[in-house]
Amino acid sequence: MTPDTTAELVFLPLGGCGEIGMNLNAYGYGPPHLRRWILIDVGVTFGGEDTPGIDLITPDPAFFEEQGDLIDAVFLTHAHEDHIGALALLWPRLKTRAPIYATAFTAHLARGKLIERGLKHVEVTEVPLGGEIEAGPFSVRYITLTHSIPEPNALALRTPQGTILHTGDWKIDPDPQLGEQTDIAGLTQLGDEGVLAMICDSTNVFVEGESGSEGTVRENLTELIGSLKGRVAVTTFASNVARVASVIEAARQAGRSVCLVGRSMHKITDAAIATGVIRALPDLIDEEAAGSLPDDHVLFLCTGSQGEARAALGRIARDDHRHISLGEGDTVIFSSRVIPGNERDIFDMQNRLAERGVRIITDRMSDGPIHVSGHPARDELRQMYQWVRPQISVPVHGERRHIVEHAAFAKSLQIASAVTPRNGDMVRLAPGKPCVVDTVPSGRLYLDGNRLVPAEGEGIRERRALAAFGFVSVSVAIDEQGDLVDGPLVRARGLSEEDGRSADESLIEIDQAAEEAMLKMKRRKRVLDDEVERTLVRAVRKACEQHFGRRPVIDVNILRV
Q1: What are the pLDDT digits (tens) for 325-363?
Q2: What CATH number is given for 214-365 in this structure?
Q3: 201 by DSSP, 3-state: which?
């Protein structure tokens, strides 16, 4: 391919640079006024305490919403939610007919998400492992890696300005239990041919050594499960099919039948079987049948390792699961890590289990690892750079501290240049010195019920304020001459009496403050809604602050009679 002298090769992250998750990456080629684009991954992150009522958060694709016809393809590296979870949510906004490409396991799950959102007409094209696709000025080859889900892939992007390696999520696992090992020959050959830039996972850049192997985890789980009496439950990430297979094998060797518990556990294993990732599973038992087995002969493989209230283990911990209960003499094994931000939910769930006499075993309590990360530690990063030898390092998939540290680490490995992008930074990779040449609109969208709304939208800000400060409504009826007909009447939500009841008697003082404020108003001002609202808000807020020590959200309703 001969480069156009006016064309630029650019990288644009709209998610995943500043957080771990919510990945949305774009590569553009062409002159600035007429670039052709490909997108790689369209993922979500999850809501927390600071986003009340919000479960899913997506990148804001506003930059592409009016240029969907310039997108030549969408490529998915693997099937984790932070890489495919926003595909169906954002697809209508992109207004594109670009083909979607993924390997079989990822394609199966991506199709399911599109169908759930009513997008049955949107096709996902399966690419074989190692397959190559032409998309506008890009030639894209899938390169097999290892991770904590089946069929993780790097993408080698060949362009007239040079070759880019986009790693996606990865690690180097010599014994992954399921699927192929890392394609070292393919990565080395790519390095021999020359790589302009590597856009690379930064998640574990602060972790020394190696991430560990699924083979070691299987050995340790087999030994641990074989030593236990009573009922055993294991919770892990459903997407880690190799781990699921290891738990099932460990249970088989211990003479235990396995019961899958949780929607995601069934969904992922069904996908793995349908796409040939797992050839066959031993006979599994359903939840009702599990109740009739002796305690030492059953193992529950559960969702809910992050303390999710609605997941299987969360319901078991609250003792409100329809078929399964755990108690004295039983054990729950957490074959998972604590994702930052989930600590409180996980520990609350573990405390509820402990109250019921259930023994808790985590990775820190076992003799050998019963969980390993799916992301590269520093020795693995070093090895990848030695194989690929890029001219430019572009760290992604991390918070700011991860990205900056990764860039410094790459330079210590004699990589000539490193760029540390933020979401919305358009990085020119070629021609010339790599640098940020533009900043485009970026941000977050919240899935609020069934609609996507801006993260800083008025409704979301109000909800945060309601959750933090409570709510007071003031109603007043005023006639056309400005005389009070009824009210002000004050009602409150989220404010408390000293005995813990919702505020009731205490509102008498707030009522009085509102009434005094209205009586002090001149009649000519009472005919103006804005003046009435301003006066009541000021008086009620001051009274609430004095009486409750809070400044609640105040809503004024004016009835003209």
Answers
A1: 999 999 999 999 998 878 999 999 999 999 999 999 999
A2: 3.40.50.10710
A3: strand
